[in-house]
Amino acid sequence: MKSIVIKQANIVNEGEVFVADILIQNGIIQDIGQLDGAVDSIVIDGAGKYILPGLIDTHVHFREPGLTHKGDIYTEAKAAVAGGITSFIEMPNTIPNTLTSELIKEKERIASEKSLANYSFYLGINTGNYNELMNVDNGTVGAITDDGLYFSGTGNMLSNNSDYMQKLFASTDSIISLHCEDESIVEDNLTIARERYGDNIPIEEHSRIRSEDACYQATFRVLGMAIKFNTRLHVLHLSTAKEAMLFSNDVHISKKRVTSEVCIHHLWFCDDDYKTLGVNIKWNPSIKRKEDRNELMRALNDDRIDIVSTDHAPHSQTEKQQNYISSPSGGPMVQHALVAMLELVKQKATSIEKVVEKMCHNPAILFGIEKRGFIRKGYYADLVIVDMNQKWKVDSANILYKCGWSPFMGYTFSSAVCTTIVNGHIVYHQEIFDESIMGKQLTFKSLKQNAKKSQI
Question: What region holds the Amidohydrolase-related domain (predicted)?
Fold first, then answer.
């Protein structure tokens, strides 16, 4: 692998923006400063552009195995790399659900052969795999989660199962990442909507069915349990202002026992957009009011919310374009996540330093991902180069998702990803891919509990 020198880019790293060169050798960042090119090195002119650490998306659904008509590890990782995401952690709601170490190993095998990005996989939680959860390898599995598994039937969301939640919270040394919506509240709201509309429920009802109260009650419940047992809890995809008020910014993320994320769609869209985008923005939790969106951005900026992820969840256009009841929740996002956040930077909703903190640094800190998420000597050379002044329009010709659509269809972004480097390999440059080298498996630092766990 040839050495690479990136010259005179605006480096965004650890709260600063500064102009320097970066030397990459053998997949590692060797030096940062005013540098001469090594012999036979590849030189990239970064003048006028911005270079960020490769993004780490800790919440994706890439659909393999079992749902590959929607997406697969190859197609979705390729789209992620084109969007500047160099590492991902994938959810367990594939077929079969990823509930055992053997099934994780099979996903790792597939990714080692097909993923252009670095990869890891969550172990799923259900009431039948407690022993698996107690013996998970925290060196290669960053967390355990219930996310997505509730789609196989009600009663599978951990935040609604207080007895099993208490047992698990009292005993695990893993990060528990949870989808928090109260199923009983959702079902009651759905019953009311059915009584009013029959099977023709308008999409505008989605935020009232999967309501603020459903989210808040479940989040409040799991936070209480985490505090009781000093469990390391990560709450997924906050969608309401009321939930954001439950989280604190009184300590650095590295010292937090309870953390949270917000997704791109909850920062970008609001319930006014149902009129024009319809089921294309049907997510669980639902997109809610403009006031919720604004407060989520404030909570992100003041560090009550710790990371930004995508909840990338592709469905085929045929599946998606059904009536409200039949249309599945979720949408593709990884290719457009970074440029969407950079658009918010230009709107002065946040800063580029904050984007890097929440999409690069903090995911690495939160999950203990080793030697990634920062531009530092000795770290893996996962980098993305961005042109902040390159306009482009999202259309069917440039969408890389296997499902072939995007909720951003027709939108013109004013920034573009020029180059993505994964482990020192230029995998994407000016819309051309070099697929000769695959990504690596992520590894994690030990996150054993500091306090002795209670026993049940």
Answer: 50-427
Show the beta-strand stretches assigned E in 46-175.
50-53, 55-60, 85-90, 118-121, 123-124, 144-145
- CA dist 414 and 447 (Å) reads 40
122 and 39 belong to one structural domain: no
Domain holding 149, by residue range, is 55-367
Count how many domains the chain has. 2
* Tokens found for residue 273: 């957009």
DSSP state for residue 284 in the 8-state scheme: S
pLDDT in tens, 129-181: 999 999 999 999 999 999 988 644 444 567 677 788 899 999 999 999 999 99
Cis peptide before 407 (omega within 30 of 0): no
Please say if the pLDDT value at position 298 is more than 60. Answer: yes
pLDDT at 155: 47
C-alpha–C-alpha distance, residues 317 and 327, integer Å? 10
CA dist 333 to 83, 396, 451, Å? 9, 14, 38
pLDDT at 344: 98
Strand order in the sheet with 85-90: 55-60, 85-90, 118-121
Confidence (pLDDT) at 157: 63
Same domain flag for 47 and 19: yes
Give all strands (DSSP E) within 14-170, no chain letters. 16-25, 28-33, 42-45, 50-53, 55-60, 85-90, 118-121, 123-124, 144-145
Query: Which has the closest alpha carbon to 68: 114, 122, 117?
Result: 114
- How far lies 150's CA from each of 92, 97, 136, 438, in Å? 11, 11, 21, 32
Same domain, 78 and 136: yes
How many helices (DSSP H) and strands (DSSP E) are in the chain?
A: 15, 20
Whether 140 and 253 map to the same domain: the answer is yes
Neighbours of 454 (CB within 10 A): 13
Q: Which neighbouring-strand residues pair with 433? A: 428
